[in-house]
Every structure is written in structure tokens, then in C-alpha cells.
């Protein structure tokens, strides 16, 4: 495969990864609204599916109650999720470098891979400490694994480009 085709594929993978980061960040902002929608679906059972995973309904009701009380009494705590959103957007911007020049900026791809791998020990260690159910921890860890896949593939192609040049 020639370098131009590899570069195009790397760009597509990195654009998709960056869009995923942006989506993750932006969805951290309307957290209360999102959890309210989940409550209506799984707790109020507007779709009739709450009985499928009753533990999920209980967890969503618990999270909804906690967020509602937190937003009412301590809205400044939500500032933490605002910064989470900001961090996702900033990291997505960092991927503009390897989108433009993947060989020169392969370190950004490797940084992203390390960050994806770090999701796992963070979820495993902090999840139980915060009372997060195992299923939710696994879901969180899956984002690291899913994010790692396109970055690993992109990195492989960048190193192929280096060998061609």
C-alpha cells in the first residue's frame, strides 16, 4: 500500500476518534437532562423495557436522585463535569496534529493509546471506591478498549509510512 493511501486511512481513523472524543465531552454537559431521559425510559418505563434489566432501573433511579439533589443543593459540583467536557475537547484538538502530519505527530497517537489503556486501572480502582456497579465499570473500560483499537491501527499504518519514506 502506498504512503498516500495509508495517510488517508490514518486521517479517517483519527477523525473518527476525535469525533468520539468530542461527543464524549459534549455529552458530559447536559448530564442532568440525560439522566432524566434515562429515568423516564427505565424507571418510569415509558418504553416497557424496565423489567428486562431491573438492576439497571434501580441504579438509574439512584443516580437520578443523587444528581437532582446535587444540582439543587450543590450545583458547583457539576463544574467537575464541565471540566471533563473541556478536557475531551482539548484532547480532540490535539489530534489535529497527527491528522495533518501523522508521521511527525505519531507521539500524539501513542499518547492517546496510553490514555485509553489508563481507563482500565482507573475504572477498576476508583469504581468500587465510588460505589459504581461492576457492569458500569466494564462499560467505562470498554471505551478505553474501543478507543485503543483505531489508534493502534493508525499507529501501525504510520510506522508503515515511515518505512516507505
Brief descriptors of the model:
165 residues; mainly alpha; elongated
Low-confidence stretches: none
Category by helix and strand content: mainly alpha
| Total beta-strand segments | 0
Instruction: Please tell me the total number of domains.
Output: 1
How many helices does DSSP assign? 7
Mean pLDDT: 94
- Give the end-to-end Cα distance, rounded to a whole number of Å: 12 Å
H/E topology pattern: HHHHHHH
Q: Quaternary state, please?
A: single chain
How large, in whole angstroms, is the Cα Rg? Answer: 19 Å
Helix content: over 70%
- Approximately what portion of the residues adopt beta-strand conformation? under 5%
Largest sheet: none
What overall form do the CA principal axes indicate? elongated
List the helices and strands and how they pair.
Blueprint: H1 3-26, H2 31-42, H3 54-73, H4 79-94, H5 96-100, H6 106-129, H7 134-164
Helix pairs in contact: 1-4, 1-7, 2-3, 6-7
